[in-house]
Specification:
globular, 75% helix
């Protein structure tokens, strides 16, 4: 509650930081905000060629939508993942990147990390809006599911915020965090059903370890977040109760651990920077 009160009192600063991040995101680039669309589209094109044409993996059939399109299947998982990846990387470097401001004046340090996540949310919402229009064009009626998607966006953003709070302050004391994060994100990407359907994992033969492997795999919170976004956009169905339970639980845990870690290391922040 103390943290929320301090953030509320610094809302003007928060708005300015968000505006600064948004204005500086594609500063001096010719295409500007179009890059926020071109980057995921380029990634989608590469993976589509590799997995659809070379490996010949058929796109899963949406249930009950009936949609069979690998590009849309990929985008429904890739866009939420991009928010997580960018949020953790930018969040981890937020305090170090604003060291000069932190040394000069006091304000709730969480504001810097929160501003970076909210700025990414703006880009994320634009990408989801474009995806929604594209799905409507091919006949997938996603409009009734958009309110559910907004709830998922809030949950995912809070989940990333909690992780970023912990990473940002740890990166001040242990600069190896930012380099280790790059390796971990690569592993996490392929351990999440983004470029492949989860049915491949469920049908894989691990011998007597089948149950254990699937249980460990489902402990990955992004399995449930990606599945929930795909349910709304690709399958046109409500995410399962178990997925909601996992998402809410890991979000609360992430925020709690992130806030406690941030508060523990904040007192000596200016000295370490």
């Amino acid at each position: 509650m103390t943290t929320l009160s301090e953030l509320a009192s610094s809302r003007e600063l928060l708005r300015n930081l968000i505006a600064r991040d948004l204005k500086g995101k594609y500063k001096r680039s010719t295409l500007g905000w179009l890059w926020s669309l071109l980057n995921p589209l380029a990634t989608m094109a590469i993976f589509t060629v590799v997995f659809r044409l070379f490996f010949r993996i058929p796109p899963p059939v949406g249930e009950p939508s009936g949609l069979t399109n690998f590009a849309f299947f990929l985008l429904c998982g890739l866009l939420p993942w991009n928010l997580v990846a960018a949020g953790m990387v930018e969040g981890a470097g937020a305090l170090v990147g604003n060291a000069a401001v932190i040394k000069k004046v006091w304000f709730p340090r969480e504001t810097i990390v929160l501003a970076s996540i909210v700025a990414l949310d703006v880009t994320f919402l634009i990408e989801l809006a474009v995806l929604s229009v594209a799905l409507l064009i091919v006949g997938n009626m996603v409009l009734p599911w958009l309110p559910v998607v907004l709830v998922l966006v809030v949950l995912l953003s809070l989940f990333v915020l909690g992780l970023s709070l912990a990473l940002s302050v740890l990166n001040v004391y242990f600069r190896d965090v930012q380099y280790l994060l790059g390796i971990l994100m690569q592993f996490w990407f392929y351990a999440t059903p983004i470029i492949y359907p989860i049915s491949l994992v469920e049908s894989a033969d691990f011998g007597r370890w089948d149950g254990l492997v699937l249980t460990i795999y489902n402990l990955n919170p992004m399995v449930h977040f990606i599945g929930a976004f795909r349910d709304c956009f690709y399958n046109l169905r409500f995410p399962s109760a178990s997925s909601w339970a996992v998402m809410v639980t890991v979000t609360a845990l992430s925020l709690t651990v992130g806030t406690l870690t941030f508060r523990k290391f904040t007192p000596r922040l200016a000295e370490e920077l």
